[in-house]
Each structure stands twice: as structure tokens, then as C-alpha cells.
């Protein structure tokens, strides 16, 4: 038996006025997904435990069958693991975004123009992070470059008691002042963020980007603090060997910490310009090469939700349907039996541009056990089935029948 999860990050939504009061899932033309839904099991699952923030870290960990209330130690440590940082037990890590802020004189008065600095390239970002580390790094603070706008700060003997270090994608278009932590412990981090603006506004990479009409990466933004993770190996928990295919360090980090394979896919970006076919082929190859389980993470719907791009969110769902699912399903057909599960990790509603903790729709199809499902899969049809699972762990156990 082979198992594949296709995770559309942030796909679930609320009704969108620009889409006639429908959700992107309801509007999107997704014949492959819906064809599986007609022969599969459809329902809702709660992926975010009560009292936890609905981040992609918590939600994906949950969907992958790891109870966040047991295993979660913060977002950034998972990303650090992906980058290859060997954390000490006394280290604290933080996600370091490169962002675009407006140009008011006082940092507190600036607006979060873009949490990803205009999709800055990994190569440009590496130059900036190298400069940031040379300027702000020390025996206590060390910066590591990641992918695109996503990077990491390691704080030797730091603390996670930092008050509220707000994710930048939660405050798009808002003045940042009220979202800066007032904690005494966070003061050196907040000061570093403020100083970074003056340092980066005239950085050569930003001057070049401005000349090309692109947004500058004119500030670092620190958040997602945590300590060294301690995930159990996926194979130890579920008895099968697995692989995680993703463009983002967070998911690769979960995979590496769980001793799963994490193949690199050239051209994987995490947005609608990603190498969809490459991700699908990487999953098929992982199954051929000894893995029984492949987890394909596709970030594009989430990014479109954060950017309030309803048309692109619909487009991203359609692109996954037409460019990922056919390759995956064709690869699975060579096996006597297989199961495929399709779902989002959490909603990223267009109307709020940030994550929500609501339960999400899921679909499970097994080749040898087709049955009557639903005509089309979306938030409402999943709810109408009456099937509700209270955790991602419960969902994974149902999927793997353990």
C-alpha cells in the first residue's frame, strides 16, 4: 500500500465578496480533486488544538500525525533544522523575515507594506542576510539565510519569554507600532529590527531592486521564537517510511526532525510560479525508491490568501489540480492499492488575510474501496457529510488505518 497526502496550504476560506460570496474551493475548476471526492470519504477535521495559534507549523504538524500539544516547541526551530543549524539546548531561534516597510521617520509609524519584500529571490536575500549578520551578528546572535524572504536568527542562551512577537503576514497594510513587543526581554530584538531599517534602506541589493521597480527588503522582522524540537521519527510512530516534498524550510524542518526524506526540487518557490510538476515527480520517485508515504506541501493558496488575491487563490487550486494530481495519480496506478488524502492545513481567508483555526475539509480515496462520496469538495459539502474528526492525529490514524 502506498499513501500520498496532497496538502494545499491555506486553501480553506470564508465566502469572498469578489467571488460572488463563494469560497475559492467552491469556485475553482478542479475535476481531478472532485473525481476523487465522488468516490472517497469527505468530512471536516480540526487541525489546530484549542488554545494554539493557527500557524502552518502547528497545523501541518497536526496533519502529519504529530500532536502539537506534545511536540511543538516553536516555528523557527523547525526552519533552523531545515537550514542545517545544529541547535544547542540553550539556543532560542526566531524566524527572520525580510519585509518592506513604508518610509515614515519613526519605525513605530511605518506600515507593513509587504511581509515578503516583493518575493525577493533567495540569491538577493542571501546577500542581505550576510550583511545583516556582519552588522548585527555576535557571539550571542547569529543569522542564517534560508529561502526567499524566510531566514533564521539563533540567540545563544536566549529566552522565549518575549511577549507578542507578531507574524508580519498577520499585519499586512497595518501600522507596525502596536504590534512591536513591549516585553523587556524582547528589547534587544526590537532595537535590532529598528536599526536594520536604517542599515538596509540603502543596501546595494535594495538600490538595484528599486531601480528595477521592485520592493526593497528594508527591514528584518523577528518572530516565531522557539527551542530545539524533539519530534519522534515518523516511521517509529506509524511503521512506514515517509518523505516530505515542500519549497519551504518549515515543512522540510518537520520532515528532517521526523527522520523523513526531504528531496530538493529545483524551481520550487512556494508561490504560484513554483515547479508544480517537479514536486509531483519528486513524490512519485520517493515512492519508487522505498518510501511508503509522501507528503506534498503546496504553499501557493496560502500566499494568495495573505495577499488578498482571490483570483490567484482560485488559480492556484486549479493549477495543483491540473499539474500535480495527474502526475501523482498516474504514478500511483502502478501499485495494486493506494490511498490519497487531499486537504488544507488551515483556512487563510481572503477577507482577513491571515490564518484561522476553523476545521478544514478533507478527502480520502482508496483505490480498492471506492464508494459514494460528494459531487464536489469544498467547505460546505464537507460539513454536510456530518463526518467530523477532532484532531490531525485522529485523521492520520484513519488515513493509515493504525
Question: What is this structure, in a nutshell?
Answer:
The protein has helices at 24-27, 31-37, 56-63, 68-71, 76-83, 122-136, 187-200, 204-211, 234-238, 249-257, 276-288, 300-306, 310-323, 325-332, 379-384, 392-400; strands at residues 2-8, 41-45, 92-101, 112-114, 141-147, 150-155, 219-226, 242-245, 293-298, 338-343, 360-366, 388-389. With 402 residues, it is α/β, with parallel strands linked by helices.
Low-confidence stretches: none
Q: Alpha-carbon distance between the termini? A: 13 Å
Shape: globular
Biggest sheet: strand arrangement: 8-9-1-10-11-2-12
User: What number of domains?
Assistant: 2
CATH homology superfamily name of the largest domain = Alkaline Phosphatase, subunit A
Largest sheet: 7 strands, mixed
N to C succession of SSEs = EHHEHHHEEHEEHHEHEHHEHHHEEHEH
Instruction: Kindly provide the name of the CATH class of the largest domain.
Output: Alpha Beta
CATH topology of the largest domain: Alkaline Phosphatase, subunit A
Structural class: alpha/beta
The portion of residues assigned to helices is: 25-40%
Mean of all residue-level pLDDT scores: 96
% residues in beta strands: 15-25%
Amino acid at each position: 500500500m502506498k499513501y500520498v497526502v496532497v496538502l494545499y496550504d491555506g486553501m480553506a476560506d470564508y465566502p469572498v465578496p469578489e467571488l460572488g460570496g463563494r469560497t475559492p474551493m467552491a469556485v475553482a475548476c478542479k475535476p481531478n480533486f472532485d473525481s476523487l471526492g465522488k468516490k472517497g470519504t469527505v468530512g471536516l477535521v480540526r487541525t489546530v488544538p484549542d488554545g494554539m495559534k493557527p500557524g502552518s507549523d502547528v497545523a501541518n504538524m497536526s496533519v502529519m500525525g504529530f500532536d502539537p500539544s506534545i511536540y511543538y516547541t516553536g516555528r523557527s526551530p523547525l526552519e533552523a533544522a531545515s537550514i542545517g543549524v545544529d541547535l544547542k539546548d540553550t539556543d532560542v531561534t526566531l524566524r527572520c523575515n525580510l519585509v518592506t516597510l513604508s518610509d515614515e521617520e519613526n519605525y513605530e509609524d511605518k506600515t507593513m507594506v509587504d511581509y515578503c519584500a516583493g518575493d525577493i529571490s533567495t540569491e538577493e536575500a542571501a546577500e542581505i542576510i550576510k550583511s545583516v549578520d556582519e552588522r548585527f551578528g555576535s557571539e550571542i546572535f547569529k543569522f542564517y539565510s534560508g529561502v526567499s524572504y524566510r531566514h533564521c536568527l539563533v540567540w545563544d542562551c536566549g529566552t522565549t519569554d518575549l511577549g507578542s512577537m507578531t507574524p508580519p503576514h498577520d499585519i499586512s497594510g497595518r501600522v507596525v507600532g502596536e504590534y512591536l513587543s513591549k516585553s523587556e526581554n524582547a528589547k534587544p530584538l526590537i532595537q535590532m529590527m529598528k536599526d536594520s531599517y536604517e542599515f538596509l534602506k540603502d543596501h546595494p541589493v535594495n538600490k538595484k531592486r528599486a531601480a528595477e521597480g521592485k520592493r526593497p527588503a528594508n527591514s528584518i522582522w523577528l518572530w516565531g521564537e522557539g527551542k530545539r524540537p524533539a519530534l519522534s521519527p515518523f516511521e517509529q510512530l506509524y511503521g512506514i517510511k515517509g518523505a516530505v516534498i515542500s519549497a519551504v524550510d518549515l515543512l522540510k524542518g518537520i520532515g528532517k526532525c521526523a527522520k523523513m526524506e526531504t528531496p530538493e526540487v529545483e524551481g520550487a518557490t512556494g508561490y504560484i510560479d513554483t515547479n508544480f510538476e517537479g514536486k509531483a515527480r519528486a513524490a512519485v520517485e520517493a515512492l519508487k525508491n522505498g518510501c511508503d508515504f509522501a507528503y506534498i506541501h503546496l504553499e501557493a493558496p496560502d500566499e494568495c490568501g495573505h495577499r488578498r488575491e482571490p483570483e490567484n487563490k482560485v488559480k492556484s487550486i486549479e493549477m495543483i489540480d491540473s499539474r500535480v494530481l495527474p502526475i501523482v495519480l498516474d504514478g500511483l496506478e502502478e501499485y495494486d492499492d493506494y490511498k490519497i488524502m487531499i486537504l488544507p492545513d488551515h483556512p487563510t481567508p481572503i477577507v482577513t488575510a491571515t490564518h484561522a483555526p476553523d476545521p478544514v475539509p478533507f478527502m480520502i480515496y482508496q483505490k480498492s474501496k471506492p464508494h459514494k462520496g460528494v459531487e464536489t469538495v469544498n467547505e460546505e459539502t464537507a460539513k454536510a457529510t456530518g463526518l467530523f474528526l477532532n484532531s490531525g492525529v485522529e485523521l492520520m490514524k484513519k488515513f493509515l488505518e493504525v
